[in-house]
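Troubleshooting entry. The earlier prediction with nicotinamide-adenine-dinucleotide gave an output that would not parse, so I re-checked the input for stray whitespace and re-submitted. Clean input:
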Amino acid sequence: MAFTSGSNVLLKNIPYQFKDVSLLDNRAYIGGKWLPAESGATFPVLDPEDNVTIFRVANLTGAEVHKAIDAAQAAFLTYKEFTHRKRRQLLHQWITIVKKNRDDLAAICTLELGKPITESYVTVDYGLSFLEWFEGEIERLYGETIPAARENNRTFTTREPQGVVAAITPWNSPIAMILRKVGAAIAAGCTVVLKPAPETPMCAIAIAKLFERVGYPAGTLNIVTGDAASSPSIGNEMCRNKLVRHLSFTGSTAVGKFLNGECGKLLKKTSMELGGNAPFIVFEDADIQKAVDGLISSKFRSSGQTCVCANRVFVHRSIMSEFAEKLNATQQKTFVYGSVWDPKVNFGPLYSSRGLEKVQKHLEDALANGATVFDKTSNTKNQGPNFFPPTILLDCNAETMRFGREETFGPLAPLVPFDSEEEVLRLANTYESGLASYFYTENISRLWRVAEALDTGMVGVRVGLVSACEQPFGGVKESGIGREGSKFGVEDYTNVKSITVGI
Ligand code: NAD
C-alpha cells in the first residue's frame, strides 16, 4: 500500500511513513542556516525504481560555495579550540542521534538510490561503524617527543587540524561515504563543506539535519547541493579558494584527476578515493564453493555498484566449467527480486539510466568480441527501467574487451580463463587502477606470494569483503591518494607540527 510521508518536499507516494519528516528538506545548509539557491534553481532527484522525480533540490553555484567556505572557516576558528574530550562528546551525541534515526536514513537511501531496504540498513550501520571508530581515534591523535639535535633544546610534535575541508562524495552508498569522510574530518577538528552527488543529495541533507541537533558551532558542517558536472564554478571554488586546506574526493578517476590537477596549482592537500577494476582470481587449487560465495558478495552486492566490486574474474581453465555452474546455481538461490521496500528483496535496480547504459555497453562489447552468456534463461522478470539481472559471461578476454579497461559498475560477471600464476598476475596488474583485488587458493606458499604480488591497496585472500572501519581503505596507482577509515583516515586531516623549545 502506498501512502504519503507527510512531507511537502517528497513528490511521490511511497510505501514508508517517515518517523521524522523534518529530515526531508530540499535546501542547502550554510553557516547553520537552511537556504534555497539564490537563483531559486532546483534540480530533480529521480527514483531509480521508475525514473519518477521524487525531490527537487536547491541547485547552487560557486558563489554560494564561497559563502559556505567562509562559514566553515569562521566555525573552524572556534571548533579548533575545543579539547579532544569535548570533540569526542559531540561526536558521541551525533552517533546517538544517527542511531535513533536509522529507519528514516535507510528509507531515504532506498528512495533515492533504489537500494533494497535491507541493504540500506547495512550501509547506515557501516557508516555508523566509522563514526564510532573515529570517536575513539579522537583521543589517540598523539604527538611525539624527539631527542633534540642541539644542547638545551627540547623537540616534540603535535597533530593539528588542517582547517576547512571541501568534501565531494558519489551516489553509491551515500550515507557510508559521507560518514566515512565527514566523520574523520570532524574528529580531527576540521570543519567541512560537503557537496553530495546530485543523484543522492537527500542522504547528505538528512545527516546534516541530525548534525544540527548536536550543538557544534554553526558552519562546522555545510551542505552545498548542486550538479558540479554541469556547473564547473562549484568545483573551481573548492579547488581554488585558499581557505580550503584539503579537498577530499570520492568518485571517478577522470573527475579525481581533474580536481587533483586544479588543487595542485595551489599545492592544496588532496585525498582521492577513485575507481577500481578489481581482479578476482580463482586458482586451480581453490575451494570452488568458497570462491563462488566470495564472488557472489564481491561482484553482485549493491547490484555490482561498489568501487571494490570484482570487475575481471580470472578462473583457472581447468576448473572453469565447474566454477561457472556453481556460480550460476548459487546466484539463482541467493537473489530475491521485487519492490526495494520489501525486506526479503536483496537485489535492486541500477542507480540510473546512465548506469544501465554503461553495463549494457559492456555486455554488447563482450558479446560482439566472442563472449557468451552462460545461462540465457534468466530467472528474473522485468523489474523496472533501470534493472539489470546478475549475468555471467563465458569466453571473455580482459585484454580485448571493454570491461578489462573500465569499471562496469553493474552485475556483469565476465569469466576469463587463465593457465598460469605468472600469466594471471600480469593480467591482474596491467590495469592503471589498483584499489582492491581478491584471490582464492588453498596453497599456503601461493597465498603469501600472490598477496604480495598484487599491485592494489587492498587484497582479499579467500574473502569477498575487504573493508571495515578498523582497516585502511584506499588504492594505489590511478585508484587514488590517501586512506579512509582506520587511524590513517583521521590522521589524514591533521598536520604534524614540529616544535623546538630552548630551555
Ligand atoms: P563522479 O566522479 O561522476 O562523481 C562523483 C562526485 O563528483 C559527484 O558528487 C559529482 O557531482 C562530483 N563531480 C563531478 N564532476 C565534478 C567537477 N567537475 N567538479 C566537482 N565535482 C564534480 O563519480 P560517480 O559516478 O558519482 O561515482 C562512481 C565512481 O566513484 C566510480 O568510479 C567508483 O569506483 C568511485 N568510488 C570510489 C570509492 C573509493 O573509495 N575509492 C568509493 C565509492 C565510489
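This one parsed fine. The chain has a mean pLDDT of 96.
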